[in-house]
Amino acid sequence: MSDSRTYFLKPTSVRHFTKPPPTSVPPVKPATLAQEIPTVIPTVITTFTMTHDVAESLSKMDISPLYTSDKRGSDDKGEGTTDSPFKTPLQAMRHWGKEPFPTIYVDTKEEGGEPFSVISQAQMKKLTKVFQREQSKADGKQKKDKEEAEKRSQNLEESKSVTITEDPSLPAATVTKINKLEQFRGQRVKVYGWVHRLRRQGKNLLFLVLRDGTGFLQAILTDERCKTYEAMLLATESSVALYGTIKPVPEGKSAPGGHELHADYWEIVGRSPAGGTDNLLNVESNPDVMYQNRHMWIRGENMSKVLKVRHAAIKAFRDHYYERDYVEVTPPTLVQCQVEGGSTLFKFDYFGSEAYLTQSSQLYLETCIPALGNVYCIAQSYRAESSHTRRHLSEYTHIEGELPFITFEQLLEALEDLICDTAQRIMASKHAQMVLDINPGFKVPSRPFKRMDYRDALEFCREHDITKEDGTFFELEMISPRLRSVR
């Protein structure tokens, strides 16, 4: 391609001249012109062709400016347009990714004029240095990660040649659970569980915290035992079998149960995905992530305590009822009648007939009273109450009791006895410390409970500034005429 024009390029524009500018190449001396022509002509032709092709390519590129606004921009959701600007110019640079940058606009400081103006050279220079430091740090991290990956790959290859076997000269290991280990101190045991946490310290030391549902155990793997291929790939939530001796922790150190397992052999039972649970959850995970991964979240120490305390509470309720001669009934949860009103029923088709998930087992319990006397049940109940979210309490564990031939005062005494006795049973059980871990200020309720009628309750709410959601106080007019007359 031949072209007699010359193009001068800038980062954001192409200037076209029909003639060379005054600062063109100085003329060549006649004496040397003949000597230079053979080499100059091909170079000039090549230069003209290349500059023309670059100009055509750049003219086809759409290098749009980027817009930022401290007032209405967003670095998370912005797109760099006038309608959806970034919040900061630095984020605009990150979005572009490399130098040179397109023209960056910021909020104008002039009132009544255009909403955007070009960023100042001083600010652009300052932010460019910040961007360059970030890029340098990112490049350094990328280099370091690459080196670590190569080193890890090499270590993995070397680990394939490392094998361990159980020493037949050692005494046979006793299989036990973590919560029973105190009685086995000084003895060789075998414990199954899941890796709750792990920490590597150099090539020859690996600390594990094992979880089996009954408790937590710290274990130590040394030398060849932490150099095998399985040890190199070990991650949280892998299931393992550990063999070793239970020893008290050194003075000044701490571990669950006050002891640790010094492993002499171990086996992988089931390997977890790379990264373990850390790739799914951490302490900074938002509630939506926790809900979606609830099966993993309950493996944490606090959430597992909640489930264990719930187990203790249900047992305490049952023990209370059993010792007071109540009979437990297991009523159905698929029903064909409503209990609390039709607006909160979950409906479904039951072999061609309309049926519902139960709102309460009250009616079934009432039918059992003539045959069994005092009865109770612990079952699921369902309420289709309107809500703005699917994460609504539409299903819950319902504890219900029915007693015949009692007065209202006897009903209040039965409820008071149920609450206080159940709380006492929980705090007298092995789960008491878990209750205090979850709720440090918990105290067993004392008897008798305060009794008051509706008028007294309204006055109590006023004295203690207890209001409705709109901030107003409860009024007597809100109560039905029948209840107003009850004292």
Written description of the protein model:
By secondary structure, this protein is an alpha+beta fold. The chain is 34% helix and 20% strand. The chain contains twelve helices and 17 strands. The chain has helices at residues 30-60, 89-96, 121-159, 229-233, 287-292, 294-297, 301-323, 362-372, 408-427, 432-438, 454-463, 481-484, and strands at 6-9, 14-17, 66-67, 104-107, 116-118, 174-175, 188-200, 205-211, 216-222, 239-248, 259-270, 327-328, 334-335, 346-350, 353-357, 375-382, 395-402. A five-stranded mixed beta barrel has the order 7-8-9-11-10. It has a three-stranded mixed beta sheet with strand order 3-4-5, with no helix packed on it. A hairpin with an 8-residue loop joins β4 (104-107) and β5 (116-118). α2 crosses α3 (121-159) and α7 crosses α10. The radius of gyration is 38 Å and the shape is flat. The N and C termini lie far apart (106 Å).
Blueprint (SSEs and pairs):
Blueprint: E1 6-9, E2 14-17, H1 30-60, E3 66-67, H2 89-96, E4 104-107, E5 116-118, H3 121-159, E6 174-175, E7 188-200, E8 205-211, E9 216-222, H4 229-233, E10 239-248, E11 259-270, H5 287-292, H6 294-297, H7 301-323, E12 327-328, E13 334-335, E14 346-350, E15 353-357, H8 362-372, E16 375-382, E17 395-402, H9 408-427, H10 432-438, H11 454-463, H12 481-484
Parallel strand pairs: 3-4, 6-7, 9-11, 12-16
Antiparallel strand pairs: 1-2, 4-5, 7-8, 7-10, 8-9, 10-11, 13-15, 14-15, 16-17
Helix pairs in contact: 2-3, 7-9, 7-10
The share of residues in helices is: 25-40%
How much of the residues is beta strand, in percent? 15-25%
Structural class: alpha+beta
Q: The biggest beta sheet, please? A: 5 strands, mixed, barrel
**Radius of gyration, whole Å:** 38 Å
Order of helices and strands: EEHEHEEHEEEEHEEHHHEEEEHEEHHHH
**Residue-averaged pLDDT:** 84
